[in-house]
Amino acid sequence: MTDTSRLSFKEMCARFDVTPRTLRYYEYIELLSPDKEGRARFYGPRELARMTLILRGRRFGFSLEEIRQWLLMYRQQGTRPQYETFLGLADRQLGALELQKAELDATIDDLRALRGTTVEALSKLD
After folding, report:
1. Cβ contacts of residue 51 below 8 Å, gap of 6+?
2. Contact 9, 20 (CB under 8 A)
3. Is the pTM of this model over 0.90?
4. What is the pLDDT of residues 56-70, one digit of tens each?
5. Which of 2, 50, 89, 99 has the fewest other C-beta atoms within 10 Å?
6. Closest listed residue to residue 11, CA positions, set 35, 38, 21, 20
7. H or E segment at 36?
8. Per-residue confidence band for 79, with pLDDT thresholds at 50, 70 and 90
């Protein structure tokens, strides 16, 4: 790659550890729009930043459609509405994650208790 500010399709996949199918899908649903030269695709700083946001959003549990709408909002409405929308999404997702965490903690406690009971039962068999 001669231009160090742009990544090829293959480099983009490697950089973000995504499959070619995933990257093509993100383009198809208009999350990313690389520069195209013939059949080759090149990703500049804007696309790298967007990909970082997409992957973070997915990690936080946001849907691809929520991420797409949120990214479009910046161009259509500006920073303030985008930030305000993000706060709403973040608050909703934090609540959902806290609930999942509580459920997971309860499951871990139950499994530990059952394991302890099993250890006791096993020791009585000896």
Report:
1. 12, 16, 26, 32, 43
2. yes
3. no
4. 999 999 999 999 999
5. 2
6. 20
7. strand 35-37
8. confident
